[in-house]
Amino acid sequence: MTQPATDHTARLMDGAALARRIVDEAAATAAGITSRTGAAPCLATVLVGDDPASVTYVRMKRNRCARAGIESRHVALPAGVTTAELVDTVTGLSEDPSVHGILLQHPMGRHIDERAAFEAIAPGKDVDGVTTHAFAAMAFGLPGFVSCTPGGIMRLLDAHDVDLAGKHAVVVGRSAILGKPAGMLLLGRDATVTYCHSRTRDLAAHVREADVLVAAVGRPRFIGGDAIKPGAVVIDAGYNEGNVGDVDFDTARRRASLITPVPGGVGPMTIAVLLSQTVRAAAHQESLRR
Ligand SMILES: Nc1nc2c(c(=O)[nH]1)N[C@@H](CN(C=O)c1ccc(C(=O)N[C@@H](CCC(=O)O)C(=O)O)cc1)CN2
């Protein structure tokens, strides 16, 4: 993996192109389900409040669904909704046989118990991989739905033939739907995983040791390229305002062997995995009804 640190530019991992292929596959599966059952796979999207970034992400998800022949049923709740009301809404969708998958957009507001809200999603409809059930299955290496961004990261690594066994993967960030599951998935592929976070001492020293770096802190250009090990694979899962990642791309690409751009890297993969898992959920629910 060693590369000279000068006169070098990393190869881009084109998440947008790979996402298009995954969405095309999902569209073909959706078409089959629709012709067999007379009803398209259906994703319920639940949005609390009107945070502009969340509004945009949910709109993007619904647009991609429409293009893939997946119905999306949107539930917009006021910012002041209580946890109990949100749980009731999600429980109703979990019990509705015409809904195959549920997406509850995060963040939901500081007054909401997000864990309680996520846990109201029936495991079979948790196409966003946010429940304890999904996390445990993923951690044990059992089949199930994975959290979409970490799932997208793994698909990007596989598409670029990145061999993870024995490699040192450093995950910067420990959120329940990104950093933590990303580290577990890498561990499941025999990487040696270090988690770093806001209380980590001398972050740069850890980053320097990373063969594979996953940046998921949510702070623009937080990780400078100078700390990146020459030849490292750099996955930037940051989605900060202005489409800026967590890694300083211009300096990082001079040292990395492979790097995801922002935009066009991990972001589109997140949505592609959501659609792919939605049609899988619909196909599974259809098989149970036969
Ligand atoms: N319940 C969930 N909430 C959130 C998730 C999630 O997976 N499940 N992820 C993030 C944000 N997110 C999806 O919700 C997301 C972020 C960015 C993108 C994306 O495609 N970005 C583009 C650029 C955006 C643009 O063109 O405006 C890119 O990187 O190319 C998709 C999804 C938070 N919440």
TrEMBL record:
Binding-site positions, NADP(+): 173-175
Keywords, ordered alphabetically: Amino-acid biosynthesis, Histidine biosynthesis, Hydrolase, Methionine biosynthesis, Multifunctional enzyme, NADP, One-carbon metabolism, Oxidoreductase, Purine biosynthesis
Positions of the Tetrahydrofolate dehydrogenase/cyclohydrolase NAD(P)-binding domain: 147-285
PROSITE patterns: THF_DHG_CYH_2
Subunit field text: Homodimer.
Family: Belongs to the tetrahydrofolate dehydrogenase/cyclohydrolase family.
Protein name: Bifunctional protein FolD
Gene transcribed to yield this protein: folD
